[in-house]
Amino acid sequence: MDLAEYRRAARAWLEENAPSDDHPAADGITRAKEFMAKLYDAGYSGITWPKRWGGQGLTEAEEHAFAAEARDFSLPMYVFSIGLGMTGPTLVDRGTDEQRERFVRPLLRGEEIWCQLFSEPGAGSDVASLQTRAVRDGDHWVVNGQKVWTSVAHHADWGLLLARTEVEVPKHKGLTMFVVDMHHPGVTVRPLRDMSGKANFNEIFLDDVTIPDEHRVGEVDDGWSVAVTTLLHERLSISAGVGMGGQKDNPASLEALRRAVDTSDPLVRDQLVELHIRSRALALFNQRLAQEARAGIFPGARGSAAKLLLAELTLFQADLATQLVGPESVLAGHPLAQAISLAPGMALGGGTNEIMRNIVGDRVLGLPPEPRVDKNVPFKDLKVGTQG
Questions:
Q1: What does the alpha-carbon distance between residue 280 and residue 302 come to, in Å, rounded to a whole number?
Q2: Is 234 labeled as catalytic in the residue annotation?
Q3: Which residues partner with 378 through β-bridges?
């Protein structure tokens, strides 16, 4: 099947199977899982993922073709965004064959939902300062601690957990990555409401949670290198909108704003053109990074540049929508209100804009790094929460 035929087939499938706007949404998770199962069975989930582990084994061209068609539909995929964009790719890259065999296919088919357990109250952008402890007990690990700002944790079956396993070494060297059962009786999930009034995030408490060693991802005390893999995928997936399910429902999109404002005004058209240029530049940058990744070229810190570009685009988009539509755009009940209120969070989640600029300056542009007084200090000697 050539690419044009593939795209036509994808369009036809979406027109027949994408949920309609008037579909009853009493149980959104059930609806989302049913759709993901159909998506997988049709060959449109995990398009570029290895066939051995449940993916389709196709090329980036097919993935982009499907994504281009999916933009016109409302697809209930957000709850799977962490698994598709972050934890799943990490398991493919760094997991054991047994872990890939157990977890990847159910993830792609929507049978299991994933979350990412990195941030803590005292360890946000400086993730390596985390204090959640994992202590080995025979062939298991016992975990105690707290995580925060965890998306979709209230729906998750599994989580990718970064925990401290050694305190006698510098903070980046004493971490280990695990897969944790979110239904374990020691896992408590509590919602956190944001300024929109919705609970998009959660705080997680882990009390004597046991994890079998077979669910350890990577080597003991080498979790930071696994975390770097996850963070790379996170920043790429956030900037590319992996698992977002299309742009039809975005009231601040270029298409939505064109319908909402008077485009006969040349100044308005200039602003919309600027939005198109920024959006297109980010899309092309993401496409280049994805092509390099498929070719085995590690994008490295440039993933942080993509995430930074998206955060700045989102803020520009929200500001533009407010200017063009007017003060009523921020009133409760207006279609734009939630998109505008959530926009500042994009400059925080996945690493703040300031941290992203530091990474780009240091690791992409080769500028002198900021002084780090804690680099070689054992974690137990640090004043956690105060170091840079």
A1: 17
A2: yes
A3: 170
Q: What is the dihedral of CA 130, 81, 256, 72, to 10 degrees?
A: 170
Burial 163-180 (b: 16+ CB within 10 A, else e): bbbbeebbbbbbbbbbbb
Convert the pLDDT of each residue in 113-129 to its tens digit. Answer: 999 999 999 887 788 89
Its pTM surpasses 0.90: no
- Catalytic option among 69, 166, 203, 234: 234
Closest CA to 130 of 166, 158, 94: 166
Q: Which helix (H) or strand (E) holds 223?
A: helix 223-240
Residue at token pair 């803020």? 315
Domains and CATH numbers, the chain: 3-108 (1.10.540.10), 114-224 (2.40.110.10), 227-364 (1.20.140.10)
Q: Are 342 and 194 in contact (CB under 8 A)?
A: yes
Burial of 376 (0-12, 13-18, 19+ CB in 10 A): exposed
